[in-house]
Amino acid sequence: MINEILTDKKLVDLKNFIRNYPNAIVAFSGGVDSTFVLKNTIDVLGNENVLAVIGDSQSLPTYEKQNAIKIAEELSSQYLIIETNELDDKNYFSNPVNRCYFCKSELFTNLVKIKNEKKFSVIFDGTNFDDLKKIRYGKIAGNENHIVSPLAECKLSKEEVRFFSKKMDLKIWNKPSSPCLSSRIPFGEEVTKEKLLQIEEAEKFLQQFDLGSFRVRHHNIIARIEVEKEFFSKLIEENIREKIVQKFKSIGFAYVTFDLNGFASGHFHMINNVRN
Prior knowledge:
The C terminus is likely disordered. By secondary structure, this protein is of the alpha/beta class. It is about 45% helix and about 15% strand. It has a four-stranded parallel beta sheet, with helices on both faces.
């Protein structure tokens, strides 16, 4: 339950925090948090003093990149798209538990170069206060590269970010979290371009069926679909089930399953903890 008085103060604190900088780069993914940071940074500093940088990674679905561009344009933000090459790094594609560290290191190193070349004063990201309660290897990379997290600094939770985003008429206020495609591959199994393309195509296909939050987990020749439990019956409707099986086999999966535990964000991390 949100205390609106305390939450309103946090929004004032956020704007005052941003005001400490004359200009800013925003590491922009098009998700709820980074959109909220971008919107408020533009409101405070003016769009001429803000640059949204979108990392075009092979683990980022094409539709997510297009969505980020669309949102940046709707906010009248200057934006820049940069290619990141984390798949060239064995530390990343070998898929250790701290895989995100190497991904974010690649992104943030590039952002620091842009910051220095274009003489920006700071780089913001969308880390919120709730994120600090979890192990976030990307945050370690952020700290090493002096990335500033205004939401975390002003103690804004995910719920509060959604609350304000809705009040500001940001269309993505209730957008589900969408980690990179590599998160669908079990730790220790190599991340390859081919696997990422399979996952992207499979998840894009499922979007048409309105299944709520879902993931396609990649187990080599097996695709394991996770959906929220209230969508179980829909997933196995005969006409939908047959279309899914046919499509998934056409993109290289031999078997298609769905997880009776239902959808859970970070499922591979939980499985790894159980095994340990």
